[in-house]
């Protein structure tokens, strides 16, 4: 499948871990197995739009200028446009995740500044797992954070970036060692 090859050019291990973590969180929330599968499928694609972002911007991480960050934000719309070539119930879940994984609970995220439960549940789930994996992974511009520091950060973002209830369930899940 062509889209899968495109994904492999990005960061397939990150995509895989975010997918597994998101499925775990969905199960911890007692969602149906169908939801769990769709979230797992869709989470693979969350950053697919980064294929259209210049490597120099992808690699500069947190040191992005304001202008570069504006370009980086476009990976959401690029992702939606890449996925628009396919329609299926699974792919529709992927589109929801691509479109909303950078929204924030407090309404300051992008691209649509959705707030609270206006943000689809799938996007709220992937947002936490994406951030956690990004923090605990080594990137070209940063070392991997220790798990306790990453958890403290996630906890600090409860009600700011993240849905407070999902944050609680996520923290408990990681602390219980479901997937570390
Ligand atoms: Fe993203
Ligand atoms: Fe990501």
TrEMBL record:
Highest rank taxon of the organism: Bacteria
Organism whose genome encodes this protein: Paenibacillus silvae
Location of the HD-GYP domain: 1-180
Pfam families the UniProt entry points to: HD_5 (PF13487)
UniProt xrefs under InterPro entries: Cyclic_di-GMP/3'3'-cGAMP_PDE, HD/PDEase_dom, HD_GYP_dom, HDIG_dom
Identification of the protein by name: HD-GYP domain-containing protein
């Amino acid at each position: 499948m062509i889209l899968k090859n495109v994904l492999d050019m990005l960061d397939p291990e990150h995509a895989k871990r975010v997918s597994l973590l998101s499925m775990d969180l969905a199960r911890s929330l007692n969602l149906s197995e169908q939801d769990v599968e769709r979230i797992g499928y869709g989470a693979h694609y969350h950053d697919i739009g980064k294929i259209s972002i210049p490597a120099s911007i992808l690699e500069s991480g947190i040191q992005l200028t304001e202008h570069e960050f504006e370009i980086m934000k476009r990976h959401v719309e690029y992702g939606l446009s890449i996925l628009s070539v396919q329609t299926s119930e699974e792919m529709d879940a992927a589109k929801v995740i691509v479109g909303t994984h950078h929204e924030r609970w407090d309404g300051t995220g992008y691209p649509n500044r959705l707030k609270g439960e206006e943000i689809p549940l799938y996007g709220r789930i992937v947002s936490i797992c994406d951030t956690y994996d990004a923090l605990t992974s080594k990137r070209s511009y940063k070392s991997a954070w220790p798990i306790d520091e990453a958890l403290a950060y996630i906890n600090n973002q409860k009600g700011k970036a993240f849905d407070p209830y999902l944050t609680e369930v996520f923290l408990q899940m990681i602390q219980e060692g479901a997937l570390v």
